Amino acid sequence: MSEADHDDIRRLLQEALPRVHVEPRRDLWPAMSLRLTARPRRFVWYDWALAGLAGAALAACPDLILVLLYHL
Amino acid sequence: MNHPYLRAYMAGIVGPTAFLLVVMTAFTFARFVFDVPVPIERVIVFPMALIPNLFGLWNMLYVGLKPHSRHSIGAHGALLPFVIVPSGLALGTVLGVVKLDQDGVQAFQAVHVPYLRAVFVVPVAVVVYYLVWKYLVGFFNDLVGVE
Lengths: 72, 147
Description:
The complex is a heterodimer.
Chain A: H1 3-16, H2 29-37, H3 45-60, H4 64-70
Chain B: H1 4-33, H2 40-43, H3 45-65, H4 73-78, H5 81-95, E1 98-100, E2 104-107, E3 111-114, H6 115-118, H7 121-144
Antiparallel strand pairs in B: 1-2, 2-3
Helix pairs in contact in B: 1-3, 1-7
């Protein structure tokens, strides 16, 4: 197949297929950046207590760590 | 908002997919460094294939229920272990990596946990899931605009 045939096929394909808009209509990054820099949720005291309890339970029963990892 | 369920699914699977590296590393170290005879190829099926998808589907359920329900995302996530733990037990039993006997649970041909102690897995998993869903999945939901 010659180079001219390739050009013909490329031209026919471009004519047959609709043109795709590769650029979004607006810049999506500012909205995402705003969300990323928004104030994160604060870790409240009772959540620290719960995390401590879970950690203490695992420290007391280390054989549960693999079993727990299996479920995470 | 376009495609809220697709966004919810994607936000849901991020945490467990990334954490899979930790799980995989832990089981790999146990198997190849500490010579614990864990049948890793059968054990990893559940955390690798099912858990991320369950997280995604559970988050889709949360987004679907949100207009009709007032429960928080943390409470919603805390309910997931009641699906995941029985599923993990069932799949582990089918694959031969979890065995239930008179004394307790034999897990991964390496760990034997008496029933009295095995019961602790559920509340610890509930706490961990509550925190993960409240802070991590909640953050990703905020990010993709479904919270």
